Amino acid sequence: MTAEVRFDAVQHRFGSFTALHRVDLTIAAGEFIVLLGPSGCGKTTLLSILGGFLTPSAGRVLIGGRDMTHVAPKDRPTTTMFQDYALFPHMSLRDNVGFGLRMRGIGRAARNARSEDMLDMVGLADKAGRRPHELSGGQRQRVALARALAVSPDVLLLDEPLGALDLKLRRQMQEELKAIQRRVGTTFVHVTHDQEEAMAVADRIVVMNQGRIEHCGTPQEVYLRPANLFSANFMGEVNRIPVASGGATPLGPMPFGQGTLCLRPESIGLAGDLPLGPARLEEAAFFGAYLRCHFRPVAAPGMRLVAHLPQGLHLKVGDEVALFARDPVILPPEPGAVA
Ligand SMILES: Nc1ncnc2c1ncn2[C@@H]1O[C@H](COP(=O)(O)OP(=O)(O)OP(=O)(O)O)[C@@H](O)[C@H]1O
Fold first, then answer.
1. What is the DSSP string of 290-327?
2. Which of 41, 162, 213 to mutate to test the pocket of ligand 1 (most atoms within 8 A of CB)?
3. Do residues 270 and 313 touch, judged by C-beta distance below 8 A?
4. Is the pLDDT of residue 200 over 70?
């Protein structure tokens, strides 16, 4: 029902192009892991290697401690759920969900009982006799999940499973996916390029870039303590302030070594332990939960700081306020990175 996954020095080349450089990653049994990164970073390649649809150019894949590198997809304890659901239009939901069990020679009565349990789990018990075209997109997605889990895989692979849903439904399905994963305890490996989705569902996020893992950690770790500028930027908006050796910055001296000071918009405010000096409010927009403000520091008018302040502050464009920050992250200089 669940298993540990290990990628051991996995590399993949398509001809002369290296899609995965050298990936070492251990996923605990029962963990919800999200592979996150921009288009082309190698997420699907890594997932395909785990599912057995691609054989890596080098390295090994272990599932539950067993070397699966050269084992065919159908002989692995994995199932894959794709974005397009791939439901059979002419079959009832019960038969769709029971399809994998039928392929394994499970008799009708046991199959139907399992299908109905699975449909119950995804909240569609009363629709077992319906056909896929009678369902909404979100419901079809739930059927695909029920079908993937019906065969009791140790590891479920999800390739952009919510990509076809509108934003509101996506958010709702993320919560359901997470709740179902907790209930079944199966290891989930989920691919997305949406950082909010990653944070909503993951126990740990693997941030990928150009065939490499940039950072792997809990949503809090990758958001609040990014390992590098790529992860900091990819996980959300960040203000970047260059720090020269000796702690010199355009805002005055600061107690940091050379690098880039990264501050999330919600870490900048009118109180905090790191003074940023006076700044002039240039623009403010109401975003419901917060006020999104652009400030020009008096000491560095060429720089712009974005801060999310609590709404209800009576600030006007042109006002000058003393800004402070919390949760500073200082990242070392990187070759080629623009601070
Ligand atoms: N069959 C192939 N032949 C050649 N190059 C490929 C092949 N499949 C993928 N690639 C390349 O390998 C890189 C990684 O592709 P991959 O599909 O893993 O990226 P991804 O992170 O999943 O992107 P997306 O979010 O767009 O699906 C890309 O640069 C892609 O162009």
1. SEEEEEEETT-TT--EEEEE-TT----TT-EEEEEESS
2. 41
3. yes
4. yes
Residues composing the chain: 339
Q: Residue 285 is which amino acid?
A: A
Interface confidence, given as ipTM, is 0.95
Q: Which two tokens stand for residue 35?
A: 């592979």
In contact, 158 and 191? CB cutoff 8 Å: yes
Which tokens is 59 given?
């390295």
Pair of tokens at residue 244: 């020269």
Question: Please, what are the domains in the chain?
Answer: 5-233 (3.40.50.300), 238-331 (2.40.50.140)
List the structure tokens of 17.
Answer: 């192009």
Pocket test for ligand 1, best of 23, 44, 49, 208 (most atoms within 8 A of CB): 44
Give the Cα separation of 319 and 285 in Å (integer). 15
The H or E element containing residue 59 is strand 58-63
* Ligand 1 atom 1: residue of nearest CA: 14
The atom of ligand 1 lying closest to the CA of 15 is: 4
Q: Is 69 helix (H, G, I), strand (E, B) or coil?
A: coil
81 CA to middle of ligand 1, Å? 18
Structure-token match 């999940």, residue found: 145
Distance CA 120, CA 180 (A): 11
Predicted TM-score (pTM) of the model is 0.91
Strands, sheet with 329-331, edge to edge from the N-terminal-most edge strand: 239-243, 259-263, 329-331
Ligand 1 centroid – CA 18 distance (Å): 10
Whole-number pLDDT of residue 138: 84
pLDDT exceeds 60 at position 190: yes
Q: Read off the pLDDT of residues 117-163 as tens digits, 9 standing for 90 and up.
A: 999 999 999 999 999 999 988 888 899 999 999 999 999 999 988 88
